[in-house]
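Thought: the user wants the 3D structure for the chain below. I'll pass the sequence to the structure tool as-is, report back what it returns, then summarize two notable features.
Action: structure_tool
Action Input:
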Amino acid sequence: MQLRIAFAITSLAVAAFGLAMLALPEPSMSAAVLKQGPEKCQKCHKSEHGVWEGSAHGKSFRDIHKRDKAKDIAKKVGGGNMRKNALCQQCHFTMIDKRGRARANAGPSCESCHGNATSWIEIHNNEKRPKTERRQETAALGMIWPDMKYDIAENCFGCHGMSKLKGSEIDALLDAGHPINGDYEIVRYSQGSVRHRFYPPNIKTNAKMTSAELANFYAIGQLVSLVDAHEAMKKTDHPKYRAALQKRLDLAKRVVTTLPGSGGVLGSPSEAGARKVVSTIASQDLSGKIGSFLPAESSYK
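Observation:
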């Protein structure tokens, strides 16, 4: 009798445990923005991929989550390993679908700058179609082409200036000791170790920008910085964040003041206004106007 009772109790316990396990939700992929991963781009863009692998973005995947400071910050903003921390994933990792689960596949990679390829990679790779058609369709679906410099810079500021995050997330990260760089500037951070400009006719040469190209890109970066910082200021009153943004705003205003047609965007910073100025300066050599602002090549990251 006692044996039958013990068996019945054990059976009920096992059944209850099974029901509890069934009730637990499967790990969700909805929290992470899932991408394709750099391997998909590597097939055709071998030179660019090689540069990326040697950059800080490419190398970070190996050890950033092992650093004591990173562990401490992750612990304070949700806990767990950085690779599994939803807040850290937004900027520090390329998340992919691996057997139905979200997994960190790399650090910041191709899609971090050029847009999530999930919706456009098949169109982009279909060389049977004219490139002009593929470009239009992929751009409409979120691909950021190298000559879309405003969009490239805007994407970079989203993470490097934390502006893609919610105000509460910014506050939590800064309170946890996360750095914020008020000196972030697009030329210094894009034309150093991460530069990958392999264009026809010399597709094996990682070309440097000319002085005119550098000045134009710098000006675009400052227009983005002006708008980005102005909008991000509305998200939080955190003193550390506002100090960094104010530093960016002060420089951006000094540079943008020198650009033709910039009066409107200076008085009321907006993306539409900034893009209008970008169109105005597109064919101009601004090196004489803003050359003194350009960072020295020795300072490139």
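Final Answer: Structure generated. Strands lie at 34-35, 94-98, 101-106. Residues 26-114 form one domain.
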